[in-house]
Amino acid sequence: MDLSIEETGELVAGFGEPRFRAAQIYKWVHQKGVSRFDEMTDLSLDLREKLRGLTIPGNLEILARQKSKDGTAKFLFGLQDNESIESVFLPHDYGNSVCVSTQVGCRMGCRFCASAMGGLVRNLTAGEIYAQVTGIQNDTGKRVSSIVIMGSGEPMDNLDHVLKFIAMVTDASGLHIGSRHITLSTCGVVPGIRKLAAYNLQITLSVSLHAPNDLIRDSIMPINRKHPIKELMGACSEYISVTNRRVTFEYALIQGVNDSAGQAEELGSLLRGMLCHVNLIPLNRVQERDYRQADRERVHRFTHILEGAGIPVTVRREKGADIDAACGQLRRRAIKDRV
Ligand code: SAH
Questions:
Q1: Which of 34, 74, 221, 276 has a Cα-to-Cα distance from 56 of 20 to 30 A?
Q2: Predicted pLDDT of residue 285
């Protein structure tokens, strides 16, 4: 599950077979969900015999599943070392998307985020990220056409595995999802953004901004002390000029913290003239924290001011409000139940 198509080619070459067999194996594993070599009927009997001793780990174990009335479904997957991760299935009119986790836990420490509590346990491998997509596809029977790398963990903190995952998931012999249907969300790890820009992958970059100035951002997102807003905006501008892609800024409105009219104006001036779009998110309540979701009037006012400043803005529809759809909440509950 963890091999890129090139690495699969090397594996078969090691058995004295031509590398193009890799594409055949990839199709069986990633498109058809077959994990036994003797079922791969277009491989020669001889090769199937040679590969018989190898096993491809099957699907991740589904430890829990929560379905929302709106079709959103959250999955808690078990890993081989008994850790667990969350992924979300999101049906849309234009296709289905999956939100994948990239790490077990997270070390970024954002104050409002459930994934950050308990810190980082470990990075996921590319195969473990991929298996969330195929696991959900197999379980729901629905084809996934877009991916948001926006689950638990900071993708820039595990960038090599995330880049490998992107290469695997876009491969024509794999799920063949177009780069433009992939979104990567970061809390603002500047060197990661610059590295990603250099690859010019055409994926959408989403930046979790959540504050219009360093004073507020420092108080809710520790990463800002390392890479303040000016530096972050510089890296985003570089991403835009290299890729020509519009950047999304995520902004969760927290009552009394970042949702005032003055802060909306400040955000408007910060982003004016940039090829970007703001996604206002209703904050998901996290049990252990006392941050509250901004009320409707404040959301309206904030939206209105941004629009007035000429910034394209959308208010994210709240999906899965009746399940633990916020990152990390289901896993935290499972951990608590265990102890
Ligand atoms: N580490 C990456 C991706 C994972 S977090 C990042 O920070 O972008 C995915 C998104 O969920 C981020 O925008 C994050 O700020 C947001 N988020 C975290 N906790 C939230 C909460 N309680 N309510 C709403 N959004 C939250």
A1: 74
A2: 81
CA 43 to chain centre: 34
Question: Which residue minimizes the CA distance to atom 21 of ligand 1?
Answer: 284
CA of 234 to the centre of ligand 1 (A): 21
- Distance of alpha carbon 102 from alpha carbon 189, whole angstroms: 15
Would you say the C-alpha torsion 254, 256, 257, 263 has a positive or negative sign? Answer: positive
CATH code, residues 61-338:
3.20.20.70
**Choice from 290, 327, 330 to test ligand 1 binding pocket (greatest atom count within 8 A of CB):** 327
- Annotated catalytic residues are 86, 327
- Ligand 1 nearest-atom number relative to CA 206: 8
Assign 172 to helix, strand or coil: coil
Output 152 or 56, whichever has higher pLDDT.
152
The pLDDT tens digits of the residues spanning 40-51 come to: 999 989 989 988
Residue span(s) of the chain under CATH 3.20.20.70 come to 61-338
CATH 1.10.1740.10 given to domain 5-54 = no
Structure tokens at 273: 């003239």
Amino acid at the residue 29: V
Give the Cα separation of 321 and 51 in Å (integer). Answer: 46
Q: Residues lining ligand 1, judged by CB closer than 6 Å?
A: 108, 110, 112-113, 150, 154, 185-187, 208, 250, 252, 281, 283-284, 286, 326-327
Segments of the chain assigned to CATH 1.10.150.530 = 5-54
Closest CA relative to residue 118, chosen from 294, 331, 338: 331
**Rounded mean pLDDT of the chain?**
92
pLDDT digit string (tens) for 263-294? 999 999 999 999 999 999 988 887 777 899 99
What φ, ψ does residue 133 adopt, rounded to 5°? -70, -50
Q: Whose CA is nearest to atom 7 of ligand 1?
A: 187
